[in-house]
Write a structure and sequence with these properties.
Layout: H1 2-5, H2 9-17, H3 24-37, H4 43-49, E1 57-62, H5 68-83, E2 87-92, H6 97-109, E3 114-117, H7 128-132, E4 137-139
Parallel strand pairs: 1-2, 1-3, 3-4
Helix pairs in contact: 2-3
Amino acid sequence: MAALSGVSAKTASRALSGEGYVAAKTRQRVHEAADQLGYRPNGVARDLRRGAKASTLVGLISGDLANPFYSRLASGLERELRMNGLQLITASTEENPEWERQLTDTLLERRVRGLVIASTMARHDHLAGERVHGIPFVRVRSR
């Protein structure tokens, strides 16, 4: 993007982040190059660079979002999280324990702030290490 707009990487970074010391025409060129390339800022990288240990995302892993219980749960969670500056990301396991484990790992790799798990699994020993590191988990039962 910097090369396409004819500026240094630092100038491109300043232009995209809204920092000062960038001429209006240069800022415009950088934004046009970003649009042309389909550039989107990496929120996780930005948060980590600023010292955040987790993103503003909270994960919900459910058995099946078509189930009215899970959709109401997601709706209520999303409303509450939004009021606190957080966003909900949902994933459905289709009641498959292996998918649940994979989705849990994927969301944790994305540095979610916490997880709400409406699980089909009886035990979650694989999450013990994450609990030690302060990742909050909530287990929800539909029955």
